[in-house]
Amino acid sequence: MSTPFVLDGKALAKEIEADLTTRVAALVEKTGSAPTLATILVGDDPASVTYVRMKGNACRRVGITPLKIEMPQETTTEELLAQIDALNADDNVCGILLQHPVPSQIDEQACFNRIAPDKDVDGVNITTFGAMTMKLPSYFSATPFSILSILKRYNIEISGKDVVVVGRSPILGKPVAMMLLNENATVTICHTKTRDLPEKVRRADIVVAAVGRPKFIQADWIKEGAVLVDAGYNEGNVGDIDLENAAPKSSAYTPVPGGVGPVTIAKLIEQTVQSAERKAGISK
């Protein structure tokens, strides 16, 4: 079997950022100011702190203004909703990101749903999800959008293919399944409680791993020539697939790190730019 192709997310993210730099410059020339992406970080979870810093750095690379809102661990749902309301009302803010996960005392979905749909550049509001599912104009959940963008950029055929998504979270597993269904794939959604999971995964032409468990999907679950998309990122820089042993059986795979993650950030920023362009009357 031929050597599997690496679906390089870092390279794609650089391509996206180069395009966004030009678009942001045009926005600044027309409006006199750069778009702002507001990120709300509740608590001090180390992984979340790192993700927010990476997003801020990516904003600066393309000319967007990052606005970091830090709130204490003991923040209540009501306090967080009030902060979201303030950002919804701020004309300078084109995108709002609530860093996931939030502390357990907060009603996360209520806070996601409070984000105005025209600023929901991370695609977490149920209105946004419903519009995406029905193929209506909307923003996409950033990680699923990243996955779809990677597959399209590297000419991975989706239409008619059997896809198994392992994971059912409302911001990853469910939306990516709907997005792939809208691309005419035949999609099976599985999870840790699925019976005969290895057998179901073995039927897949494309496997999307989004279960949040390190090396959960084993090499002997993968059929020869399958495409592996690993959206997991766990301690030790490992994904949700045992890529060391599974990747050689594949025709193409996303590495961890350097696969889905960089494109997720780029797509989040891209949707912020789209929001700013719509506000400025620039059609894209």
Keywords for this structure?
alpha/beta; Rossmann fold; globular; three-stranded parallel sheet; 15% strand; 284 residues; 9 strands; 42% helix; six-stranded parallel sheet
Structure notes:
By secondary structure, this protein is of the alpha/beta class. The protein has two domains: 31-117, 3-Layer(aba) Sandwich (Rossmann fold); 142-260, NAD(P)-binding Rossmann-like Domain (Rossmann fold), CATH 3.40.50.720. 42% of the residues lie in helices and 15% in strands. The protein has ten helices and nine strands. The protein has helices at 9-31, 46-62, 77-88, 108-114, 126-133, 142-153, 173-182, 197-202, 243-246, 260-280; strands at 5-6, 36-42, 65-71, 93-98, 162-166, 186-190, 206-209, 227-230, 252-253. Strands 1-9-8-7-5-6 form a six-stranded parallel β-sheet. Helix 9 (243-246) links the parallel strand 8 and strand 9 (252-253). Helix 6 (142-153) packs across helix 7 (173-182) and helix 6 crosses helix 10. It is globular. The N and C termini lie far apart (42 Å). The model has no long low-confidence stretch (mean pLDDT 96).
